[in-house]
């Protein structure tokens, strides 16, 4: 309560007389309490005079403890980003890096295009002046308000890896509001590596349920076009509804790409409904002969063998899996 009361007094004083507020804070002997009270006074001052608060904070705060300075700088960027940029232009080392990064991150939330232009200018002059992921993060924020502009900007990123991930982030963000448009965009990408990353990102988009993504992908193009992504969707789907995922898996062309999803479905299904092992075994045995079927059978018998090995041996001896080496190794 004492700390809260002092904090309130300092905030109130900071709004009317920041000098008195800082003098009051500076009179505190406890270093931890001093830091908290000084932050209260300067944070309040930053709301009406961020330039003065920034200058005072730099004189009173250690460079290797920049949280207060960055908090003030964020407030300043929200009210006058150009002035904030000028203020940090000559800062060097870790302080300069943190300061410029704070401006980029803050701008990305309120004016992504301005954030992009600022970040681009910084990286063009000095590749280590801010995080190398900055342009990608700006694109991700930009895609929330203007996916087309964000994607246009992402294509101009010179670093291949950063460009790929920026395009993926933009598409995944876009899919949250317009899945069809995001899928349409993915089909225009000729680079298989980029397209694969985008589709993988869409498959793992936690804001769109897997049934919706699966249906959209199937409706959009032949399943062969998206087989890897569909398999990834099924793996995620199996964690929430393994039976529906099992039914969906039967719609895919079987091969190495579906082996991991068949295994995931069998594992999740048998864990969720151990009493349904026989039904799950029937489903696994119905899969076309190959790696997917082997993986599913092995997953079923691995679980069964751990809980009831003698019954598992009886079942495997009388089932279609009796000659399947993968199913047998599941019991070991």
| Computed structural class | mainly alpha
Largest sheet: none
Q: Please bin the fraction of helical residues.
A: over 70%
Cα separation of the termini: 62 Å
Number of helices: 21
**Mean pLDDT level:** 80
How would you characterize this protein structure?
This protein has helices at residues 2-16, 18-26, 31-46, 50-60, 67-79, 81-88, 93-110, 112-125, 134-142, 147-154, 160-177, 179-188, 192-203, 210-220, 227-238, 242-249, 256-272, 277-286, 291-307, 309-317, 325-329. It has 332 residues and is mainly α. Helix 7 packs antiparallel against helix 8 (112-125) and helix 17 packs parallel to helix 19. The longest helix has 18 residues, at 93-110. The radius of gyration is 29 Å and the shape is elongated. It starts with a helix and ends with a helix. The model has no long low-confidence stretch (mean pLDDT 80).
Question: How is this structure best summarized?
Answer:
This protein is mainly α and 332 residues long.
Topology:
Layout: H1 2-16, H2 18-26, H3 31-46, H4 50-60, H5 67-79, H6 81-88, H7 93-110, H8 112-125, H9 134-142, H10 147-154, H11 160-177, H12 179-188, H13 192-203, H14 210-220, H15 227-238, H16 242-249, H17 256-272, H18 277-286, H19 291-307, H20 309-317, H21 325-329
Helix pairs in contact: 1-2, 1-3, 2-3, 3-4, 3-5, 4-5, 5-6, 5-7, 6-7, 7-8, 7-9, 8-9, 9-10, 9-11, 10-11, 11-12, 11-13, 12-14, 13-15, 14-15, 15-16, 15-17, 16-17, 17-19, 18-19, 19-20
What would the keywords be for this entry?
about 325 residues; single chain; mainly alpha; about 75% helix; elongated
